[in-house]
Specification:
heterodimer, A: alpha+beta, 5 helices, B: mainly alpha
C-alpha cells in the first residue's frame, strides 16, 4: 500500500512538473493597473517626502536669513535716539564663528577694531563691549557679522549691562504630550472588494499620549525619543451580532465566523457570539449562514449592528526637531520615524458602553514602522517650563496586514499638546 | 529560454518600475504559475483570481528577492501561499467529514498502468477532488510539506491531514484505474 501511495504521488508530481497552461489575456490586463498604480503611489509618497523636506529647508533658510539680518532692530530696541550723533560708522568684523561673551574687550588697531581670543560660549544672548572712548553695548546673534558702531552714552549701556544676565544653556528636557487623533487608512493595490471594504469602514475616536526625552544638539536642532501609547481602530457597520450562540455551536476550537475587513480577516474567538452580515454575503465565511440558522428564531440576545476593530500600540519615536523661529513663541518643524509595537488587537461590539469581545483581526503586523512630520509651537512659561502644541501627521510605511491586505497603509493626524520641562 | 543573467536584469528592471520588464517577467512565468493555480482551484475563475493576486504580491515583494536560490521556486511559493489564503478564507470553517462521505473503492495496486497519462488528465483528476482533499494532496505529494506543517497551514489536525491525504489518494487511484481500464478496453477492441 505504501509503495502504491508513493507511486500515485510520484505520478502526479512528475506528471505535472513541467505542465504549463497559458492564462487568458485578460489576466495581465487586470494585474497591470495594480502594479502601475502601486508604483505611482510609491512615487507620490517619495515626492511628498521630498517636498516636505524641501519645504522645511526653504522655510528654515529664509527664516534663518531674516533672523540674522535683523540686527538693526536690536539697535532700536536699545532706545538709541535717532538724533544721537554716531561717533564712528567704521564697520568691523569679528573673526570668529562663535559668539563672544559679555565683557570681552575689543581693541582698536588703526581704523579697525579687533577682538582678542576669548573663551567662547554658545549662547544667543551676548554682549559686545569695546574699551575706548567709544564704548559699545551691542547684542549680536552671530559673531561673524558686520555691524555698525554707534556712539552710545554711558548710562544707556550701563543700564543694559546691569539687566544682562548670563544665559544658562539647558540641553535636556522631558515632555508629556497627548492628543486625540483622526485615524484612517489608504489603500494602494488590492482588489475591488478590498477597496469597497475600506470605503465602508469608519474611524473611531482615537488618542495618543506619552512621554518624551529631548536633547538639544545646538541652537536649532534637537533630537527626541520617548514612549507613546496609541489607541486606534475603525467601526464596521452592518455587522449584526448576537449572544447566546454557545448552545448551538458545534465548533471544536475553530472559529465559527470569519469576517473580511480592509485590515484583514476578523475571526470569532468567542464561541458564544453569532454574527451575520446583511446584503453582502461575500463578506462573511461561516457554516451558519442565514438559511441554516436564524438567530431571531433561536432567541439569541441581540447585541448591536456594528463591530469595532481596535488596535493598541506602544510607539518609540525618533524625531529630529528644527527650530525655525526662536522668539517668545518658538516654532519648530519636526520629522522622524517611529517603531510601533502592536500590544492589543480586539474586535468587539459596544453594548451600552460595555465591550462584548467577539474576536480579533488575523495577520496584523506586530511591528510597524511609521513616519511623522509636523509643526510645533513652544511658548516659554518660565525659564524651565514650556507649553507645547504640535499638529502631527503620521503614516505607516509598511503595510498594516501584509499577508492578506498588502496595499493598506494607515495614517493619523493629531494635535498634540503638553508641557516640557528643561534641565 | 532566458539565461540567469537575463532574468536578473528583468527582475531588477521590474523592481525599478520598468513596464517592459514587468510584462516580460509575467509572460515568462505566467503559464507555469497558472498551472499551479489551476492545480489548487476547483474552477477557472478561482484560478484566475489566485493568479492575479499572486502576481500582484510577486511584484510588490520582488525587491526582497535575494537571488539566493531558485527564482521559479520563490514565485511558486508565493502562488501556493496565495492559493492557501484563498482556501482558508473560503473553506476553513467547514469540516470535511460533514460535507461528503467517501465510498472507499476496492483497490488493486498491481492493476494500474500509469504510462501514457497526460499532464492535462492528471490536472483534471486533481481538480475534481473535494477542496480540502485537493489542498492536502497538493501540499503533501507535490510540495513536500509534512502533515504537521499542513495541519498548521490549513488549520486542521495532523490526523485529519493524514485522513484527507489517504482519501485523496484513493480517489485519485480510482480515477487513474478507471482511465487506464477504459484505455485497455479500447485497445482490446
Amino acid at each position: 500500500m505504501d509503495r502504491s501511495n508513493a507511486n500515485i504521488d510520484l505520478v502526479f508530481r512528475n506528471g505535472l512538473k513541467d505542465f504549463e497552461v497559458l492564462p487568458p489575456e485578460l489576466a495581465w490586463k487586470k494585474i497591470k493597473p495594480s502594479i502601475y498604480g502601486r508604483k505611482r503611489v510609491a512615487y507620490f509618497r517619495t515626492a511628498a517626502l521630498v517636498a516636505a523636506f524641501a519645504s522645511i529647508g526653504i522655510v528654515a533658510f529664509f527664516l534663518g536669513r531674516s533672523s540674522t539680518t535683523s540686527l538693526n532692530d536690536s539697535f532700536i530696541a536699545f532706545n538709541i535716539s535717532q538724533e544721537d550723533p554716531y561717533y564712528s560708522v567704521q564697520p568691523f568684523r569679528i573673526n570668529s564663528e562663535s559668539s563672544i561673551p559679555a565683557g570681552t574687550n575689543i581693541h582698536e588697531r588703526g581704523s579697525e577694531l579687533q577682538a582678542p581670543s576669548a573663551d567662547f560660549i554658545q549662547t544667543d544672548e551676548i554682549v559686545l563691549q569695546t574699551v575706548s572712548q567709544r564704548q559699545l553695548v551691542q547684542p549680536v546673534r552671530r559673531a561673524e557679522k558686520t555691524i555698525m558702531i554707534p556712539d552710545i552714552s554711558e548710562p544707556l549701556y550701563s543700564d543694559y549691562l546691569s539687566r544682562s544676565k548670563p544665559v544658562v544653556t539647558r540641553r535636556w528636557s522631558v515632555e508629556a504630550m497627548a492628543s486625540p487623533t483622526y485615524y484612517s487608512m489608504m489603500g494602494a493595490g488590492g482588489n475591488n472588494f478590498s477597496r469597497q471594504l475600506l470605503a465602508s469602514e469608519k474611524p473611531i475616536s482615537s488618542y495618543t499620549g506619552g512621554l518624551t526625552v529631548s536633547y538639544r544638539i545646538n541652537r536649532r536642532f534637537t533630537i527626541q525619543t520617548g514612549l507613546f501609547y496609541a489607541s486606534q481602530g475603525q467601526k464596521l457597520a452592518g455587522v449584526y451580532s448576537y449572544a447566546g450562540f454557545q448552545a448551538y455551536s458545534e465548533s471544536k476550537g475553530t472559529p465559527n465566523f470569519e469576517l473580511r475587513t480592509a485590515s484583514g480577516p476578523v475571526q470569532t474567538g468567542n464561541a458564544d457570539v453569532f454574527i451575520s452580515v446583511r446584503g453582502d454575503p461575500e463578506r462573511i465565511t461561516t457554516q451558519y449562514t442565514n438559511d441554516v440558522f436564524d438567530p431571531e428564531k433561536s432567541n439569541l440576545t441581540y447585541l448591536g449592528n456594528e463591530l469595532i476593530q481596535s488596535f493598541n500600540y506602544l510607539q518609540m519615536p525618533l524625531i529630529l526637531r528644527y527650530k525655525v523661529i526662536d522668539k517668545t513663541l518658538d516654532i519648530n518643524l519636526t520629522g522622524g520615524v517611529s517603531y510601533d509595537f502592536l500590544i492589543r488587537n480586539d474586535a468587539y461590539t459596544d453594548v451600552n458602553g460595555i465591550k462584548y469581545l467577539v474576536g480579533d483581526t488575523k495577520g496584523i503586523n506586530t511591528l510597524a514602522l511609521s513616519s511623522s512630520f509636523g509643526m510645533g509651537f513652544e511658548y516659554g512659561l518660565t525659564d524651565k517650563i514650556s507649553l507645547n502644541l504640535e499638529p502631527t501627521f503620521r503614516y505607516f510605511l509598511n503595510p498594516f496586514n501584509e499577508p492578506t491586505q498588502p496595499g493598506i497603509h494607515p495614517y493619523s493626524f493629531g494635535v498634540f499638546s503638553g508641557f516640557s520641562f528643561r534641565f | 529560454m532566458l539565461k540567469v543573467q537575463e532574468i536578473g536584469e528583468i527582475i531588477r528592471g521590474s523592481v525599478n518600475g520598468n513596464r517592459r520588464d514587468q510584462e516580460l517577467l509575467y509572460r515568462r512565468y505566467a503559464a507555469k504559475l497558472y498551472a499551479v493555480c489551476l492545480q489548487y482551484s476547483g474552477n477557472d475563475e478561482e484560478a484566475r483570481d489566485i493568479l492575479q493576486e499572486g502576481f500582484i504580491k510577486i511584484f510588490e515583494n520582488l525587491e526582497y528577492f535575494k537571488f539566493e536560490g531558485s527564482f521559479e521556486g520563490w514565485l511558486r511559493r508565493i502562488m501556493v501561499n496565495t492559493a492557501l489564503e484563498k482556501f482558508r478564507s473560503r473553506h476553513n470553517l467547514y469540516r470535511v467529514d460533514d460535507i461528503d462521505s467517501i465510498q472507499e473503492p476496492e483497490y488493486d495496486p498491481d492493476n494500474h498502468d500509469y504510462a501514457g497519462l497526460e499532464a492535462a488528465d492528471l490536472m483534471s483528476m486533481i481538480r475534481e477532488l473535494p477542496p480540502k482533499y485537493r489542498m492536502v494532496f497538493n501540499l503533501y505529494a507535490i510540495e513536500g510539506y509534512s502533515h504537521k506543517e499542513i495541519g498548521e497551514l490549513v488549520n486542521i489536525s495532523e490526523g485529519t491531514s493524514k485522513s484527507n491525504l489517504a482519501r485523496a489518494r484513493i480517489i485519485l487511484q480510482r480515477k487513474v484505474g478507471s482511465y487506464t481500464g477504459l484505455r485497455k478496453k479500447a485497445a482490446n477492441g
